[in-house]
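Final report, Chapter 2: Outcomes

The project's central promise was a pipeline that accepts a single protein chain and returns its three-dimensional structure in a standardized token representation, suitable for archiving and comparison. That pipeline is now operational. To close this chapter, we reproduce one record exactly as it appears in the project archive, with the input sequence first and the structure output second.
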Amino acid sequence: MTATDRSLSLAKAAADAALDKIAQDVVAIDVSAQLALTDVFVIASAANERQVGAIVDEVEQRLREQGVKPLRREGGREDRWVLVDFGDIVVHVQHVEERTYYQLERLWRDCPSIDLDALSAPERPASAASATHV
């Protein structure tokens, strides 16, 4: 089993949102063959807790534009690791130190990585795109 096109599109949107907030080392892992609950993990690092919150806020906003609301969030805006479950994808935003310590990529190394650069970005509504550049 591989991640659905919808999941890949959402992963790309989440990754782009994280990168817009200067996230580091953004990766996506196809966990669909290992987990029945979700298709893709998106993992991003941040230099400090405020940046973790900013990245999470931007990811949530960008996915709302795609018609997706978070089902669950673990961790708060000022935490060092926030997990946001969108159903098809789960986004992990970690402080650099937490990412180094927990090594999620190593835990899921048997799952294929997703080439985010090869995915096309989902269309953003015109009103949403212009609102973020005001």
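Archive annotation: The first strand starts at residue 24 and ends at 30.
This record, like all others produced under the grant, will remain available to the consortium after the project formally closes.
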